[in-house]
Amino acid sequence: xxxxxxxxxxxxxxxxxxxxxxxxxxxxxxxxxxxxxxxxxxxxxxxxxxxxxxxxxxxxxxxxxxxxxxxxxxxxxxxxxxxxxxxxxxxxxxxxxxxxxxxxxxxxxxxxxxxxxxxxxxxxxxxxxxxxxxxxxxxxxxxxxxxxxxxxxxxxxxxxxxxxxxxxxxxxxxxxxxxxxxxxxxxxxxxxxxxxxxxxxxxxxxxxxxxx
Length: 212
Fold this sequence. Notes:
The protein has 8 helices and 9 strands. By secondary structure, the protein is an alpha/beta fold. It starts with a strand and ends in a 14-residue tail after the last helix.
């Protein structure tokens, strides 16, 4: 398995970096679910990694105090609404491309169900040809590894160099807020079995996705 440049733009919501305690209070096991659709010649399968309570009242930035909570209430949502983490499998041209890998063991017992959802959709990890990591937040990269080993043995893993340079840099980790320091460790642990075995070649002009 190799780590190569990610040359496509990435767009995904900013995941919380410190939610293990919140996840522990959610459902004790991940939700296994899939959804399939066709887009032109491509078959796309949405794969659930599970759900967790997203602390929206902490993540959303108000232009003035007291704005976020009333808006959540008006929408009928709690301060930490249940939120789904998903990955996507694209099958096109005889190749199977996985976009993100879920949380693995990084964010608590209600997440980490990607492998089960992949199996439910009829695929095995060794059938994945390529993995595109949109960014190195834990709910996107954690599923790359399990028990210290690579989950997808035959896949080329693509990660933007700018993102890797940021999240794998101990100096950036040292200067980061305490609430997100664990995300740096998660990124390093998720990529370590791959980069140590095959080496890495990360190059891309893309900007890193900052902490939430």
